Amino acid sequence: MITMNPGAMRQGLPEPEALKDVLAQFQRELPRLNRLWRYYQGKHDVLARSRLPGLPNQRLANGFPRYIAQVSAGYLIGEPARYDCPGEEAGAKALRALYQAADADSVDLEAAVAQSVFGWGLTLCYIDEVGQARLCALDPRSAFLVHDDTVAALPLFGVRVLDMGGQRKITLYLKDQLAQYPDPQGLASGSPTRYPHPFGRVPMTEYRNGQDAQGDFEAVLPLIDAYDLMQSDRVNDRMQFSDALLVLTGVMGIAEGITGEPGPGAMDRLRQERTLALPDSEAKAEWLVKNPQERDVDVLRRALAEDIHKFSMTPDFADERFAGNASGIAIKYKLFNLEQRVRMKERWFIRGLRERARVMAGYLEKKGRTALDADKLCIRIPRRLPVNELERAQALSLLNGILPEETLLDNAPILPSETPHNN
Questions:
Q1: CA separation, residue 84 to residues 109, 295, 358, 369 (Å)
Q2: What are the residues facing 144 on neighbouring strands?
Q3: CB atoms within 10 A of CB 151
Q4: Each residue's pLDDT tens digit, 143-201
Q5: How far is 234 from 295, CA to CA, in rounded Å?
Q6: Which of 40, 126, 130, 198 is the most buried (most CB within 10 A)?
Q7: Does 366 share its domain with 404?
């Protein structure tokens, strides 16, 4: 978390030295963020591996980082978030309409992926060219939120750094205005260009991935590197096995001792006839090979893969234990660790969604639309899991006569509207 003393704000803007300090904090974080993004893109450290000339040098990068991040983000926000506000239905309806026009569901998914990869995601509320409120996801490698250094860690302002042809442009997103600095060298002198905005709060929102803001696959990067090296060496061993050396004992060489022909001609004849004539019984020919221990290597590969799944709390859906005939409750037990991790992510994600709702509520109030108290908003993120419809139907039949008919119909596997009609 990037912090600043709120006393360093002057006339709504941070002092030049304070702004330089938060930019320096961000620069120190950039190498980590770039490495996590590189791994998510499949550009692992093994791709820079070098070996002696003449030796096979396969460099295989596995897809664990992308798999872990996408499974986690998809499980968290695969279903769109739902917003309700008892007693203020008109305000909740206005907020849902605003989100629908801004394509909030897609923006939320982008922010969830960034949360899984980098340890936090960012979204920005902005006004488009026709004056409507819109949303977009920001790259955490070019934007960040600055908090105050109190225990409340309230947002002070957001920063976006753009590289435009080698020259950086810095934009600050404050509670009631934007401030643009065209040249970072001019931070200590000169005034930025200011533009008002109608949100009434900092329009940039952060979605942390827990208190430590760590990426979902960041803790298992050493295991991922070990898996890359093991798989690469496995292929290298197979290539070296096919390039085995022919060892001749009691023979000075193929040309002198076997065919009497010059070296290249003897090799061509050997490839065609596939036979060797040795001069006496003491002479012999054999291949010098390295016998690969495939079983041991496969055991190590499975152990590394299992550790990656276990410590990242991401199940292996290709595992035979996820059989198609498993019951719904059995699948839930297999997803227990993922469910617990995603529930922790969900709390922080909803915290960000609520702050964004406060920003949008300020916009609705400023525009004279239906007011909404975002603190009373009920935000739910549903998740859809495979269920055993037969078990569900049997449980409902046992509850027939105990629960109201409407409750039974609402929980039925096949709703009345989905029942096919007979002609």
A1: 20, 56, 14, 17
A2: 159
A3: 6
A4: 999 999 888 889 999 999 987 766 778 899 999 999 988 765 545 455 788 999 999 89
A5: 11
A6: 40
A7: no
Give Dmax (Cα) for the chain: 105
Three state DSSP letters for 392-413: HHHHHHHCECCECHHHHHHCCC
Residues contacting residue 340 through CB under 8 Å, at least 6 positions apart: 313
In tens, the pLDDT along 296-325 reads: 778 888 899 999 999 999 988 777 666 555
Q: How many C-beta atoms surround the C-beta of residue 236 within 10 A?
A: 17
DSSP 78: S
Q: How many distinct structural domains can be found in the chain? A: 2
Question: What's the CA gap between 285 and 266, in Å, rounded?
Answer: 15
Q: Kindly report the length of the chain.
A: 423
Could you give the CA distance from residue 250 to residue 258 in angstroms, rounded to a whole number? 11
Q: 364 and 413: one domain?
A: no
- Residue 203 in contact with residue 345, Cβ under 8 Å? no
Domain extent for 111: 2-216+341-380
Residue 291: count of CB within 10 angstroms of its CB: 7
CA distance 111 to 73: 9
Distances (CA, A) of 21 to 7, 15, 140, 161, 406: 14, 10, 18, 14, 61
Is 352 in contact with 204 (CB distance < 8 Å)?
no
What gap in Å lies between CA 151 and CA 143, rounded to an integer? 23
Strands across the sheet containing 2-4: 2-4, 143-148, 155-164, 167-173, 177-181, 193-196
| Confidence category of residue 67, pLDDT binned at 50, 70, 90 | very high
Q: Is 362 among the domain residues?
A: yes
Statement to judge: residues 403 and 374 lie in one domain: no
Nearest Cα neighbor of 290 from 240, 252, 341 is 240
Rounded Cα gap, residues 125 and 357, in angstroms: 10
Contacts of 242 (CB under 8 A, 6+ apart): none
Shared domain check, 140 and 113? yes
Cα-based angle 65, 116, 315 (whole degrees, multiple of 5): 60
DSSP state of 107: H
Closest CA to 82 of 73, 95, 69: 95
Strand partners, 206: 122
